[in-house]
Structures are given as C-alpha cells and as structure tokens.
Amino acid sequence: MSHAATPGRRWPGQRLTRGARAAGLTALLAAAVAFPLIFPNPVATNYGVFTLIFVAVASAWNVFSGYSGYISLGHAVFFGSGAYTLGIAARDWHVSGTAVFALLPLTAVAGALIAVPFGLVALRVRRHTFIVITIAVFFIFQLMAYNFSFTGGSIGVSAPFLPWQAATYNNPFYYIALGCAVGMIAIAWLIRRSRFGLQLRAIRDDEDRARGLGVRAMRVKLIAFALSGAVTAVAGGVWFFYLTQVEPPSGFDPLFDLSVVLMAFLGGLGTVAGPVLGALIIEPGQLYLTATFTSGYLSEILLGVVFLVVVLFMPRGIIPTGGEWVTKLRTRGRPAITPPAPVQAEKAEAKR
Amino acid sequence: MARQIYQAIADGILVGGVYALMAVGLTLIFGVLDIINIAQGILVILGAYLSYELAARLHIDLFIGLLVTVPAMFVIGVVIQWAFIRPLRGRERTSMTLLVTYAIALIVEGLLYQLFGPSYKQLNAWYVTSSVHVFGFYLPYIYLFGFVLALALVAALYMLLYRTRFGRSVRATMQDETAARLIGIDTNRVAAITFGIGVAVTAAGGMVYGATSGGFNPNSGYDLISRLLAIIILGGLGSIGGAMVAAVFMLTLESLVDVWSPEWAIVVFYAALVLVLVVRPSGFFGRQPVRAQ
C-alpha cells in the first residue's frame, strides 16, 4: 500500500532512503547485540529475553496469519508443545547442562509435525470456522497436557538445572532468543519478497481466484503453517528452558494467543516490521504491569482495553498508518501516484 | 453398568438442553451479524454471578431473579454491539470482531476476578440440593427445572423468529443484509436487538450453569466458550436447529464417556468436533458457503 517503489518510478531521495534503511537496520542489530553489555542488570536482560522470544513468535505468527489472512488463535499449541518437547526429551534421555540447547532443533521438528495434521483439518475451513477450530485444538492440547502421565499432569515438567552464575545467567538466553528473532525476521522478509509470499497474499485477498490462477492453496497454506509452527515451537523451547518450568496453563495459555495477535495488529498485520514493533511495545509493557500489579488481573483488563483501542482506532496498525503519514509528508499533500490522464474522455472530445 | 449408562444419557440430555439455550444465542448472533461472540462464555459466568449476588444479598429466588438479570444482560449486549461491534467495517472485519469480543471477554474476566476473586462459587436453593425420583433415577430438581426453562426460552425464541414481524426481519437480515436494507428493514436495529437477545439468554444459561456445574469462577468462561463454539460449529454456523441437536448430542456423548473415564470425557468432546469436520466441514446442518471469503 505504502510501497510506491515500483521499478520504473523513483523519487529523488530513494537511494538515500535505501542507504539510510540499511544503516538503521545495522544500528538496530548492533544495539540489540550490545544491549546486555550496556545493561548487565539481570532485570533488564530478563525483559530482553522475553521480548525477543515474543518478537520471534509474533513474526512467525504473522508469516502464516498475517500473510495468508487465516487468523490463528491456536499458536500456543506450538509454543507449549515446543516447551514440553524440550522438557520431556531432556528428562527421558537424561540430557543435562548446556547440552540441552542441542535439543532445540527437535522442538522445530515437533512443531512442524503437529502443524501438518492440525493444518490438514483446520485449513479446510475458512474465516470464523478456522479461528474456532484453532481455539478447539488449543483446548485439546491443554487438556492432554493435564491428562497424560508423561506430561506430568498439572505439575508439568521442569528443565535441568544450569550451574551458571546469577549475574550473567540471562545472557546466553538473550543471544539465543536474539538469534531466533533475527532469523525469523529474515525468513519473514525473504518470504514476503518471494513467489511463495505472493501466493500467500493472493490467498488472503481472494482464495478462490488464487486457486483459479494455479496457486496450490492447501499446500502453500500448510507449508506456511508448518514453518510458523516450527519457529513458534523453538521459541517455546527457549522460553521453557529459561523459565525452567512448564505447566499446562502456562504453556498452553489463551492470553499468549491473544498477546501475539495484538502485537501483530498493533504493528501492522502482514508487514515485516509490524509484529516486531508490536512485540517491542506490548511485551515489555506486559512484563512491567505484571511486576507492578501483583494481582495480575489488572494487566489482563489493560490488555483487553489496549486491544479495543487498537482495533477501534488504528485497525491497520502502526506501520501502514505511519507509512501513509510519511508518504503524505514527502509529497507535501500532492497525491503520491498521479492519476492517469483521462485518455478516453479526451478522445471522445476530439471526435466531437 | 446399564443403569449408569441410562443415567448418563438422561443427564446428557438435560444438561444439553441448557447448553442448547446458550448456543442458540451464539449462533443467532452469528447468523445476523456474521460474527462469533467469544465473550459469550464469560457473559454466561457474569449471568451466574448476577444471580449469585441477587440470591446472596437480596435473597431473591434464582428463577425470579431472572426477571432482573435477563433484561440487564440484554442491555449489556445492546451496549456492546453499539459501542464495539457496529463501528467495525472493512476487509478485516471477521478477525476484528472476533478479537474485539475476545478483548471484551478478557476485560469482563479481569473485572470478575477483581470483584469476586478466584474462589469457586455455587448457586444454592432447595431445588439444587434435593432430588426427585423418576423411573428409578435420582435427578436434582434443578436439572428438570433448568431443562424446562431452556425449552421454554428456546420455544419463545422460535416463536419470536418465526411468528412475528420482527422475527421475519431478523431472518431476512440473516439471508441477505443488503436486500433486507433495500426493502426498508432497519438492519442496525435488528443487529443490536439480536445481539441483545443472544446475550440475554446467557443470564438464564448462567443461572442454570451456576447451579448445576458444581462451582464456577471467572476462569470457567474458557471452558464454556470452547464447548459452545464446538457445538455451534458442529451444528452448522447460523443454524438454530443444528445448535440444539449438536448441544444435546455433544453433552450426551461427554456424559457417556464420563462413565468410563472422567478425564477424557472433554477430550472426546473436542475430538468429535474434529472428526465431524473432517467429514463435513460445514457441520451437521450448515449451509455450504456459496463463495466463502
């Protein structure tokens, strides 16, 4: 929408903006890498770890739901499954210490393996029904976590102990989470530019027509769903290892789903930067509120209120709305794309 | 064993009647407004708390209290529709409305926690604690009374929809909103009143739920909404008859599995939904979408 950068059409400052964008991204990445060195306080790095985990998850959610238009309210299925996979594998195979990190790829496999049957059922239906089925599957998983014996029932699973110093305990987690987040953003960017991403967005705009034009809709949706689920599961694994404990209501948390969706909506659904920005705003805010108000209910109410405000007053999110604003500034009120000359009318007049 | 099974079927049908009432409200809202009200579950719990407060503080009988709570919930529904649902327009309306109602559910849940705390409450009256002996079964009176109430309200809804002028305009709006507006139906008014009615039935549903479920707290809303969603999807979205059949079917199934394994009963409930959808994506009585988008 705000992408006026069609090949044939360049505005004077384009080269500059492209350079500025690269420099800005490098600076952001450098700042993210340097963050634990500048703020070594565990309280600060704790915020960093959680925020980066949610950057990765929101971006992963967006690659499926934002691009394809199928709003999933069941991504906690992958998050919780990733956490449980890591916990159960470490427990049953007696993996301890830092070797547990080597199990992280396994969580991705688990996430993708769950996504395929889940998607095969859920992706047959659209709109409301799809959303409702993701909610139903979510509850099935939470109930299974409660009821199976290998998931530890309502006690859950604990992670192996890490003999690290408390002062720098968060730093390795921070960098792993950063790696996940940056990797996921890169994937999201690549997909958006690719033929695959175009197919996803064609499905979002008009699935029947996309199929008519030769998009293998089911396959495309399923691949995006599995990819999104795999990354979410890895993030869940990191989250679990960081918290060292997962129970059914914390691993499979309905608030998780809603927070992730809110992040994407706040930043801008279907954009690359939107969910990242949303996560950077929402997650620290939530952590701060939970830390300030111990009851926890107030942060829930506030989450709901923020959600209502965002949906009612800025339904398209910060990035698209901001992009329009920038375009308006740059063109100083003139329309960004000049409307084509009314050829037909002129011809008609000439004939007369 | 056979005896337990009969008892389970009787329980399932009686409780299913109450779920049918709540589900009909939900599916009616879907049919007219094309939205799914995620807040329905927590509004049922709100209805239960309203009945609880009336009974505990003012000593009003649960059934008489409905004369207050049903209109109150109707007003809440109309206000929600007017303030949060009506302003939503555009391509993302489907997901937006779901998220808005989800947000409302969160706010109501948080407020209920703030007011009542996480401890479980139960509605009490003489008909909750004493049982009646019919055909060799012991059934608490509340199951029977609740079932009769649900039947009466579903019948009233049916009469409203199929025997009144307002009902005809509701059905017209369900079929084609644009056409309905063209022939002079005030679809905004129909939408507001329908949302109000759909929410108002939660007051009655909540009262019976609060008396039969063996305790509720603000968290019970999640359990309820997921069951209600499963029921209306299984029945076919927007199908009132389908919602009633699906409610009785699902609750009876759950009640039967419960005889063998209480932990897995609810999982079977959702598994049934998934299985049915694999075979019939539009549910039992769902209309095949002409061009779903």
The count of strands of chain B amounts to 2
Task: Give me the CATH fold name of chain A.
Answer: ABC transporter involved in vitamin B12 uptake, BtuC
**Radius of gyration of chain B (Å):** 19 Å
| Residues in helices of chain B, as a percent range | over 70%
Silhouette of chain A: globular
**End-to-end gap of chain B:** 49 Å
Low-confidence stretches of chain A: 1-8, 345-349
Mean pLDDT rating of chain A: 82
Alpha-beta content class of chain B: mainly alpha
Q: Name the CATH architecture of chain B.
A: Orthogonal Bundle
From the 3D structure, determine the CATH topology of chain B.
ABC transporter involved in vitamin B12 uptake, BtuC
Protein architecture, described:
The complex is a heterodimer of chains A (352) and B (293). Chain A is mostly helical. Chain A has a single domain (26-335), classed as ABC transporter involved in vitamin B12 uptake, BtuC (Orthogonal Bundle). Helix content of chain A is 72%, strand content 1%. Chain A is built from 15 helices and 2 strands. Chain A has helices at 14-38, 42-68, 76-92, 104-122, 127-147, 170-193, 195-205, 207-212, 217-243, 248-251, 254-267, 273-292, 297-313, 318-331, 343-351, and strands at 157-158, 245-246. A two-stranded antiparallel ribbon of chain A has the order 1-2. In chain A, helix 4 crosses helix 9 (217-243). The two termini of chain A are 39 Å apart. Chain B is built from 12 helices and 2 strands. Chain B is globular and about 60 Å long. Chain B has a single domain (2-279), classed as ABC transporter involved in vitamin B12 uptake, BtuC (Orthogonal Bundle). In chain B, helix 1 (2-33) runs antiparallel to helix 11 and helix 6 (141-163) packs across helix 7. By secondary structure, chain B is mainly alpha-helical. Chain B has helices spanning 2-33, 40-58, 62-85, 93-116, 126-129, 141-163, 165-175, 177-182, 187-212, 220-235, 240-260, 262-279, and strands at 131-134, 137-140. A two-stranded antiparallel sheet of chain B has the order 1-2. The longest helix of chain B is centred in the N-terminal third of the chain and has 32 residues, at 2-33. The interface between A and B is large, with 44 and 47 residues.
